[in-house]
Amino acid sequence: MAEDGLSKASILDAAEGALRKFGLAKTNMSDVARALGVSHAALYRHYENKAALRLAVVERWMGGVFEPLGAVLAEEAPPETKLYRWLSALREFKRERARQDPELFAMYAALVAETAGALEGHARLLAEQLAGIIEAGAASGAFVCKDARQAAAGVFYAFTRFHHAAHAAEWDTPESEAGFEAVWQLTLRGLGAGS
Amino acid sequence: MAEDGLSKASILDAAEGALRKFGLAKTNMSDVARALGVSHAALYRHYENKAALRLAVVERWMGGVFEPLGAVLAEEAPPETKLYRWLSALREFKRERARQDPELFAMYAALVAETAGALEGHARLLAEQLAGIIEAGAASGAFVCKDARQAAAGVFYAFTRFHHAAHAAEWDTPESEAGFEAVWQLTLRGLGAGS
Description:
By secondary structure, the first copy, chain A, is an all-alpha fold. The first copy, chain A, contains eleven helices and no strands. Chain A has two domains: about 10-55, Homeodomain-like (Arc Repressor Mutant, subunit A); about 65-190, Tetracycline Repressor, domain 2 (Orthogonal Bundle), CATH 1.10.357.10.
């Protein structure tokens, strides 16, 4: 916590609340400062402008997924199991969020789409985790693949339907369940598992 | 052409124009009848209500893809080649449409999303074509797969990023190009090609 008593979490909570209340176009730094009961200047000492604050809000939101994914990475499990659990955890995390608070989920989906650079960095971190699992699998002989990074990009794209917010409306359907399994079978074999 | 001189194409053209001009919420049957210079009653003889007319407009729009896809199906080519060409043709068709008239593309994307049943039937037709290519490949030994329908569903979902309108904004990026190839490599191997 900074000298002025403003923690990062409290600022981001206030910003999230203001965005939810007023929408992206109408929320400004004054709304956030007011919600915190501090001056403009105090808020600006933490975030130099609205864009910086917005990016921090979006990054915290997106970063939430690294908790369940980190837990999967820390498990002792064969690479195929680990990959399946990682993909399922990514899907389940997003699905739970969309279920629990559809409005907030939709707000963040729009915010992410409008915040330059936010998604790219996030997707890169996810692709690196995926590549790590695939590399370990290739090293142990569980997978047979020449280029773990390309394979990771392929797997990440192939599961778009189950982790990209644009498809949230269909995540609770039986078709989505069957589709996930179908893409998983294709992926498992595509990585040379069992070959 | 019907007795009243109204062809299906002219009605759908008029409806598309009206939708474009007024938007989905505000377009009604009178706007379409007016654009055609005919009475309400004349239009209702062809489409019993706005929902039926809208579905016909959407189905014509989506059905356009079956021309290039049909051409691929008619070619003499090995199954791997045919599958690659089919997936590329689907992608290229959508990408061209999004490029040529982004506004119309976005309008239709919204219309498809709001028209119950439109997408399901369309996706089923696409999945059947895919299953046909995969089945033929399994029969010739080019692919090794137990369940062509499940494999087709997997492939269709895996390429979501390259054919679903929600991702149109990124179709012209180098990442999308590389992503398509990465998913293709995963798919080709996932279908047991060359095994």
